[in-house]
Amino acid sequence: MAGDGSDQRALQYEQTLMYGRYTQELGVYAKEEAARLRESGQRRSVRDRSRTLDLLEYDKGRCAKCRRSGYPYVLEAPAQDFISVCTVRCQKFLISRVGEDWIFLILLGLLMALVSWVVDFCIAICLQAQKWMYGGLDSNVFLQYLAWVTYPVVLITFSAGFTQILAPQAVGSGIPEMKTILRGVVLKEYLTFKTFVAKVIGLTCALGSGMPLGKEGPFVHIASLCAALLSKFMSLFGGIYEEPGVTGIKDIGLIGMKNESRNIEMLAAACAVGVGCCFAAPIGGVLFSIEVTSTFFAVRNYWRGFFAATFSAFIFRVLAVWNRDEETITALFKTRFRLDFPFDLQELPAFAVIGIASGFGGALFVYLNRLIVQFMRKQKVINKFLMKKRLLYPALVTLVLSTLTFPPGFGQFMAGKLTQKEALVTLLDNRTWAKQGIAEEFDYIGNAQAWRHPQVNVFVTLVLFIVMKFWMSALAITIPVPSGAFMPVFVIGAAFGRLVGESMAAWFPDGIHTDGTIYPIVPGGYAVVGAAALSGAVTHTVSTAVIVFELTGQISHILPVMIAVILANAVAQSLQPSLYDSIIRIKKLPYLPELGWGHHEKYNIRVEDIMVRDVRYITLNCCYRDLHNVLLTGQLKTLALVESAESMILLGSIERAQLQSLLSQQLGRARRLQYIRERAVEEKKRLSIVSDPASDDNGSQRTSQEVRFQISTEESSFSPTRPVPHKPLKPALKRPSVVERPTELPTSPHDHSGIGLKNLFCSSPDAEALEDDEDVEDDMTIREIAEWEERQLDEQVNFNNCKIDPAPFQLVERTSLHKTHTIFSLLGLDHAYVTSIGRLIGVVSLKELRKAIEGSVTVKGVKVRPPLASFRDSGTSSSENETTELHKLWDRHKSMSLPRESTPSESEEKSQ
Amino acid sequence: MAGDGSDQRALQYEQTLMYGRYTQELGVYAKEEAARLRESGQRRSVRDRSRTLDLLEYDKGRCAKCRRSGYPYVLEAPAQDFISVCTVRCQKFLISRVGEDWIFLILLGLLMALVSWVVDFCIAICLQAQKWMYGGLDSNVFLQYLAWVTYPVVLITFSAGFTQILAPQAVGSGIPEMKTILRGVVLKEYLTFKTFVAKVIGLTCALGSGMPLGKEGPFVHIASLCAALLSKFMSLFGGIYEEPGVTGIKDIGLIGMKNESRNIEMLAAACAVGVGCCFAAPIGGVLFSIEVTSTFFAVRNYWRGFFAATFSAFIFRVLAVWNRDEETITALFKTRFRLDFPFDLQELPAFAVIGIASGFGGALFVYLNRLIVQFMRKQKVINKFLMKKRLLYPALVTLVLSTLTFPPGFGQFMAGKLTQKEALVTLLDNRTWAKQGIAEEFDYIGNAQAWRHPQVNVFVTLVLFIVMKFWMSALAITIPVPSGAFMPVFVIGAAFGRLVGESMAAWFPDGIHTDGTIYPIVPGGYAVVGAAALSGAVTHTVSTAVIVFELTGQISHILPVMIAVILANAVAQSLQPSLYDSIIRIKKLPYLPELGWGHHEKYNIRVEDIMVRDVRYITLNCCYRDLHNVLLTGQLKTLALVESAESMILLGSIERAQLQSLLSQQLGRARRLQYIRERAVEEKKRLSIVSDPASDDNGSQRTSQEVRFQISTEESSFSPTRPVPHKPLKPALKRPSVVERPTELPTSPHDHSGIGLKNLFCSSPDAEALEDDEDVEDDMTIREIAEWEERQLDEQVNFNNCKIDPAPFQLVERTSLHKTHTIFSLLGLDHAYVTSIGRLIGVVSLKELRKAIEGSVTVKGVKVRPPLASFRDSGTSSSENETTELHKLWDRHKSMSLPRESTPSESEEKSQ
């Protein structure tokens, strides 16, 4: 199960698993892998490779069709295309209903309710099985112990192993990752089907073991996974998930924006569903997910969360009714406190004390958890040993924890017999236990008996429970299995509240209320307050108050709960980051931290202080070789397009994929075949007109680079001689004026766009395209091809068919860090160009911003891509493959070792 | 009480009051008023006026001190200034504690709880008085009727008259206005002390009359008023409300941003407090206020709302306990439904029906309300009559409504005896009334008796109640008094729910549950669902569900309520805008509408299509006369600073107030006195050196404009000859480099900055300044002064001491409307410059954006200023006064009719 593969890589994996540290290593591995493939593939024929390029081009044809505005390609399309357009539209109209938001949300809610219920059901069976085993072996304590300990160890080990093998990303809570993803940074591998399976099964096993782990964090992740997969699935049906094409929308970048924004909204709703169906708490779910995952929240997205979470919670509870677990739909942990006099005004100080103490406790919990992780990381010896045996750590921890809770052993002093759920139910009980301290005859019914011990007081049991569970939970959530911390913390908080409540009850046996009726103190109410306060302190949220009301089905303690939660938050937030932020830091996730108003020194930092001045850019008059170089060196998603290297006037930005498509088009097989065809025609023509020296005027151009000239004229209206100093910008980027357009149109390659259109509307373009190409024979040798490609690379790039975003986000150099941070947070940017009087002088990305805010350089740059790109456009997103492809191309050139003339203008550009 | 003043103005006022239409008329009136003053003041001496200018300058000295970065004025200050700096700092440290957010929020919560409680108390007394009067006169029905009718008529008429006289802005709910203000548009007069007083007293009287009006909308407004006034009050103590000066913060514009952002956050919290202390519903209050007022919500602001609303709700309920109204803190409309089986699963369809019907009902309510307003506006005859007698409309409506509810009359069929609160309490009762249809002996206790009528069924009573109250409420909220619609709608919803519930109870007398125990249907639960659904439908919010839980103190019906609310919202949102959006449209408030994803045609619009191309700008080398002209013609808050009229390179933006300060400084008395002094010195010098022709080199400059030259050298490093073609930008705007700074510093006016410093730290600068000036005699004649001012106006502007925002928000011409809308919404912009390669080509403001989205031009431009500017910097914000001042100045020049040479460069600029 472990140990094979290179040691180094295993260690890295181990680290990922062990402490959930997100590192660049996977990406490095991918690159190494690509390099290996490249080397091994070096011996494949050049012809094969260019065919690959061709296919690549066709794959992208659809995308590349999203041409520049007002491009009248429909008019150029043949008649049958019109029919297909109509058919497609009709189809779209029918299918688009399926893609509507509310259907998506209902499906999501239904699915998640089912998943939640099934997981709960399985967990219950697992726990029952353990009880049954333990109960059946009551003749022999040792056997009992073995059964008690082995069962969770096996389950946790299986969970850890399974998760690790299938999808290491499923480890942990998932909320930190969702927070990062919703911020706009894609952690691609966190939203795959594998992760979904690993998370669901891993979670079921982990919780079935009875360890102090929670369900709620993983459910946020599972719901997001569900949404991502559902979105992917529904995009098969088309609807609004469809890429644009015939809608006639001018701004192409907008569709991406729309999809992106919609996906973010759906993911946010999914987070709400996750909490909602986990606790049957729709309102609390929505609020908790907002507080935990968002920085800025769009109110228009509000109803989505409510709708989906309510539906999900409803189905979740209805399943319970249908399964005869419940008579009707009620709260998960229903309480029965009295309604007429829930608490006295004079009890409020006690509630406030619970709040403040919970604040300190919550901060301590976060600190303790981080301490454990850091301790394990630092201890080299332990570390190395555990790395080798990667399932040892989970097994060991589980062994220790389950040994301590063994009911006949130490467990008898801390209600070790009870499962988390049972413990919570007993803690929220509306009867008072402390009476037992005075009157022994008080009847502990059912599970509440576990809290009673013949020798020790119930107070001691509670204190032991709190202290033991506290560090046990902090330790348990470091086990590399899918698990959350909310529920354990909630139970500890409830126990703490109960402790205070019981103390109060013992102190004031007849209640505090002085005049008239006796209203005894309800310790269960204190437990509710404590649970909300401690979980609020750990997660830095206020909405745990709402969750608590929905969980207990009673809202009578609203003011004590609110006061305690707010106090707990105030204390905890001033001491420690929230558990999720702490995990983000531990895992080194690429999250943009908050910038408080308090940091005055941040106001002094300007964009010019943090921006990267060495911007990767392409010029309007660059050649394909420059494009190639830029693509090989940089990693940014988009590249800046400037007028020229001298002026540096920013014209727009182009997506990397677009450029790659341009390049592969230029070097593709189709072009080469066309070249061959033209060469043949040219050859023929030259033979026929060799005696006719009429075309003398442009002979000067033709003398040196004959072939190149011919292709150039066909290709664009740009003059082939470069560099062109200070070319007017209008024709390339401004809205096409009526005067200039006609001069460009006739020169645009008709046949190309024709193929493209066919590609767009026909199901199998490859066959046709190949058929189209078969009339010429590819008789070029490898060396000829290389020479041809060299010439192609020296040509000037034709940006006509390229999607250019004409309005990339710009800042000026004096924009303050604070403003930049606000703009980045609000708009979810990943980078912005810095311009000075229209001149591009730098670029700021999330990375620089994060560095500037944190004042550190520890955070490694993780690939920054638009959110959900991974499951939105699976066809074009594999940028690594393309890079590899380009690498191959490049290496081939190197290996051919053609003497390449160094272009002076290029070196000039680089030096600037 | 009415009728005096010009008829035209009265009519306008009437219109404002009658239908709450927000028009520009007030501003027009202010301008007319200013013109009148100007004319009458024409005969005052010039000397007086320049003294006014001087004082104006001193007032602004503090602000003008916020100089450019790193200005080492502290080093130049005398020693006693150091001491004062220290003292000020110590003071600041002590006082800054006062300015902390949580203290502000506690004060706000406390204040609002008190206001809410006092208002409630007064309303209760008013209603009791009416009952007492009505009850005491039971011998004579006519007298009873008179008492029943006169009382509300008098109260409403008083409320309307009082509000109208004191602050017409207090009319209505206030939520639409808060929505607009939180969007970033200032409706200045909506946040004044007068409005506060008018709103509180008007609301108390209006609700005391017993009309179907609500408290919640006005309370949102009152809380915001409270926050605004509290903020103003606390700024007297300094703290973070203080303008910057010694904090060493580079970016001055940032402080404004910070303050603005903070004020917006505080206002948002205040809205939450408003709802929270009105219903004792902190969570619902926060959510409701977010849903109703925000588009994008900053989660970091979340806790503020919770904190303040919880504190406020707590105090509000504690006051009730202290007043012996309650035994302990409980919900406002506590229900006592059974906990163990709140509802059966099979009852859910009935709840869904309530939801859908409420959706239609809510849309109908909004439509009906708009219809009434539009009908009243269109009927010219009624309109004119009502305009003349402005209090007649409220009185008439009140008369009709109270006549209909007269208990011995029609009121007996619709529980007319009950106040709104009593009706709600009885509707939420957990007993079933329908039994009475079968068994007559059922005991209606207390107020519930009002629903029983000897002749008619309880169902008829309920139906009549719903139908009558429906149109009565829609009519009542058009009365020009401070009033909300939430509570009336809530009661109607509860009645509708009760109706359905009673029907269900009559249909299934033994409940639906089949196996075992009999669980009778609880009609009160249906009432809760109906109340939440209808109020949710009218306001388009989901959070009414939470409010309902907090109001009733029970959350057991969470799923039915959520389902009904979501269905009601889905139906209502597809039919009509929310009540608040409807009022925004009726009142024509400057609110930016939402842009749905569905409007594909919007994607085709770009910024270049909607932008205003005729931008008001100033150039770096303009003279004061240009400044003057620009200030006189434009109304924009900030002006663009461009390099030159030829290049149009955008350098930054300058606030209007800054420019006005520059201009008044240039033309101020201090400068003139200095000029006189220098002229005297010059005169003396010339007499002494008349025989010494040493300074020949700069004689050419001195020949024509001797005096001007001297002033110029004193003033700045700019050469006085203009226009300066293509001046390098660096020294003016870029971060001051070390090389250039020393050349500028020695020429800066030492004495001026000295005065400024004194002004900053001393309490009474005027005395000193006057003393300073008294050593020269102002012996210039009016004509001389006018000439001098003419010369001053021709000088080039020195922007050195001017706050320039170096990074105003920029868009490019191809930015789509959608992106623009998103950016404007997210960042709360009011305008953005459109640049093309750094050149300013246009400006887009909220107005253009709104027009483009609405496709209409009906919305008149309301003055767009940053939020809360009205109470933030009261010293510098009186732009109208300053404009008047400038107008005066200008008119004086005109009246003096000096031959003014036309500068060719200026006309050149204008022609471009």
Automatic annotation (TrEMBL), chains A, B:
Please name the SUPFAM superfamilies in this protein's record.
CBS-domain pair, Clc chloride channel
Q: Quickly give the catalysed reaction.
A: thiocyanate(in) = thiocyanate(out)
Q: How does it sit in the membrane?
A: Multi-pass membrane protein
Keyword Membrane (UniProt): yes
Q: Which residues cross the membrane?
A: 102-127, 148-170, 190-207, 219-241, 266-290, 302-322, 348-370, 391-410
Question: Ion transport: present as a keyword of the record?
Answer: yes
Q: Which residue ranges have biased composition labelled Basic residues? A: 724-733
Q: Matching CDD domains, A to Z?
A: ClC_1_like
Q: What is this protein called?
A: Chloride channel protein 2
Q: What species was this sequence derived from?
A: Oreochromis niloticus (Nile tilapia)
